[in-house]
Design brief:
Blueprint (H helix, E strand, L loop, with lengths): L2 H8 L5 E4 L2 H16 L13 E4 L8 H4 L13
Antiparallel strand pairs: 1-2
Length: 79
Amino acid sequence: MTPGVFEGIKRGLIAASPADSMVIQERVAIDQAVRALEKKDLIKHVGPKIFVLDSSNIGQVNKDTILPPDGFKPKFSVN
């Protein structure tokens, strides 16, 4: 799922796409990392449910859970 695919579904140019809620995945990853550092129990199998986004449900989906914030640009570096 990308912002372009989301808009394509909204405009009827794309029929559907799987959505894996990458924003929620990142929140879970940070939570798991903090748990590990604090030596707390880790949740063995955790993650958001993957679902299909299409014209029938796009109005009910919280865009902030499946897409990065507007203007987000990833930065990559290698040391």
